[in-house]
Predict the structure.
Amino acid sequence: MQKVYIHPLPIRIWHWINAVGFVTMILTGSQIRYVGLIDVLSFRTAVTVHNWVGFVLIGNFFVWLFFYLFSDKIRVYHPELSPTKHFRESFRQLQYYCYGKFKGDPNPHQPSAYEKFNPMQSMLYQVVMFFLVPLVFVTGILLWDVKRFYGAVELFGGVRVVDTVHVLLYIFFAFYIILHGYLGSLGHTVSANYKAMFLTGYEEVEEQHAHGESKIS
């Protein structure tokens, strides 16, 4: 096994702020949505925390965006231009997740500094980071001050439409975080991926898969 530097420090900091922030948003959003059923905080406190954490996450998103736009790490988000190759490799990855992992088969994808995501992750993260995350921020800002953004709210179909989209995204991200946490445990040990993202930035990969462009330790 070789150690490959996959997660730079700015991305690790962004990731954990994002993780804590989204969990907080989901919990406070649940209390706001189901007031009277969930009463961990007062309604006013839940709304205040929800709003402030939302603005922190928006700032955090731009830190992530500028880091990738102004560094060569943006290559990790470059899409596979061959649909046939993409879906073939995605199917292999799905087979691994469904039963190969439990049979002891090797992971068909070994990460490098510029091929950090497997085909399924690549497709999902592009949709999440470049569409769904901005959309949840936009709908959240519109609901934060409906009067101020009345014109934009009406442009998108009114408060009910904006609220429905925001709630559907809340449900999506609640399940996404659970799935993300599970998939994070599928390294060569349960804690390996968490250690790499939280502490060291290094992932251990099979030697034959370690790319020369990666930083090897």
